[in-house]
Amino acid sequence: MSESHFLIYNHKKRPITLKAERISLYLQSEVIEAISENNEIYYLFFYKNKFLTALKARKLRRNSFIEDVFKKGIIFKAPHPFINALLSTNHPCQIVDFDNVLRKLKNNYSPQEKAFILTFFESFIPKKQLFQEIQSVYYEYRRNGQNFLSYHIIEILLEFVPKHSWVKQLTSDLAFKNYTATSNENSGNTFVERKLFSKIDEEYYFQQLVNHLERESRWINLIALYIYKLTPTPSINYYQPLVKTLERHFSEEETLHILESLSQQFPSYLPLKKDLFDNYLKIQKLEEVSRLMAIYQFQLTDSQIDTYNELLENWEPQKDIENLEVLQPLLKSILNVYPENAEKLLHTFVTSLLKTHELTDVKEWLAPFKEDHKNLEVFNKVDSMKRLSQDLDQMQKLGELYYEFHQFDKGIECFSWEMELKPTDPKPLHWLSRVYREKGMTEESDAFQKLCSNLHRRD
Q: How many domains does the chain have?
């Protein structure tokens, strides 16, 4: 299953395979949008990082909570570490019906939180039913003489059903206005987060919101908040705590994913590039390390040079090198300290480059190293290969050089030409047998070895 695919379970505990599309963090909710194998859209609802339920989209209401989530929330495209974190900490995620949602809300949340969470589902559950459930919370508070809390429920309903006559009647009450004024100064109610978020351009309220999220250990939301604040103008005041929080809660790979995403938004923000550089060094992403060295003149420490020298001495590229120039800065830094390793390391790089590049390109790539590392055999060999490639009478020598650089298919072409040009010479047959054996093609190898033996007998 790929990084963006995951399982949820229906009412009968049967698995449904979904592919995450994006996640949005909005107020105290986190919502993952995903698509099934049948192209059905599902929304997974979380409240303060705790899974509530998943619902299949049919027709979404305009101006609904789910619309606000993806219009006003902080959105990240899949795959993303936030999605993985939510799913792993809430596994297994099972769809539950409305009655079970109500039971879960009653058992795990305050009545005020229950009323707020119910507004999440207006595109999936009849609005009248949701209204009645929220209204019952209001009456429960009133019966208990908790007038202050009851008017907070009216605040929720005022956003949820602003045109409802019962709500309009209560909001026109002078007492409601007095409670509203008081609640704006109260930090212990459900609305504290949205009120702080609405003023986060002011440093005092931003810091209050940071403290609020830290108290609740909601580090996913805290990271999203720092990213949100960085978006207009990158600032070290937000960037440094972001990186510290990432390192505290995410793996190196997940931290790198988020930093790379930020790098696309802030392509010239130097502290971010330096952190990317350090992370690439840790996980030994050679091309990325070298690319940043070339652009930003980042330097390796002595210990990093030692580490990378040892790494490259035993290096076997996991993929072909696409950009010829990209690895030059890294290699130059190492060879300046370890010139005695130039022959071996350049030979390794040429071996990799020849897989996807022409001899002319490889020769040009080597040119900057000649000034500091003269008289290396690798220079002579590449020059010879370039010269011999123009001479059909030199296919045997060219094939042997290709073999030395593990370019077996090109070697086979050369030895095949030589075999046709010199049908009585056993040498190309011997080399064809040898190359095919290196490729693991034993039948072909044995066939050429037999031809070679037959030729020797005739002599």
A: 3
Last residue of one domain, picked from the residues 52, 80, 96: 96
Phi, then psi, of 366 in degrees rounded to 5: -75, -25
Domain-ending residue, one of 96, 121, 139: 96
| 205-238 per-position pLDDT tens digit | 999 999 999 999 999 999 999 999 998 788 999 9
Quote the tokens at residue 338. 């370890």
346: three-class secondary structure by DSSP? helix
Q: 369 and 397 share a domain?
A: no
CB 95 within 8 A of CB 53: yes
Give SS3 for 48.
Answer: coil
Same domain, 30 and 67: yes
- Of the candidates 258, 257, 261, 291, the one whose C-alpha atom is nearest the C-alpha of residue 277 is 291
Residue 114 lies in a domain: no
CA–CA dist 218, 212 (Å, integer): 9
Q: What is the dihedral of CA 298, 299, 303, 304, to 10 degrees?
A: 50
CB 225 within 8 A of CB 209: yes
CA 399/CA 415 separation, integer angstroms: 6
- Which SS3 state, helix, strand or coil, does residue 299 take? coil
pLDDT value at residue 195: 82
Q: Report whether pLDDT(2) > 60.
A: no
Per-state percent for the chain, helix, strand, coil, to nearest 5: 65, 10, 25
Cβ contact 359:385 at 8 Å: yes
Mean pLDDT of the chain: 88
In this prediction, residue 142 has a pLDDT band, given cuts at 50, 70 and 90, of: confident
Q: How far apart are CA 97 and CA 190, in angstroms?
A: 25
CA distance 209 to 179: 23
Average pLDDT for 273-283: 91
User: Would 43 be classed as within a structural domain?
Assistant: yes
The torsion angles phi and psi of 115, rounded to 5 degrees, stand at -60, -45
Alpha-carbon distance of 292 to 300, in angstroms, equals 11
Residue 106 resides in a domain: no
pTM, to two decimals: 0.78
Whether residues 81 and 33 share a domain: the answer is: yes
What are 377-409's pLDDT values in tens digits?
A: 999 999 999 999 988 889 999 999 999 999 999
> What confidence score (pLDDT) does residue 321 get?
59
Domain span at residue 300? 284-377
Under 8 Å between Cβ of 396 and 415: yes
pLDDT at position 1 is: 42
Integer Cα distance of 75 and 320 in angstroms: 35
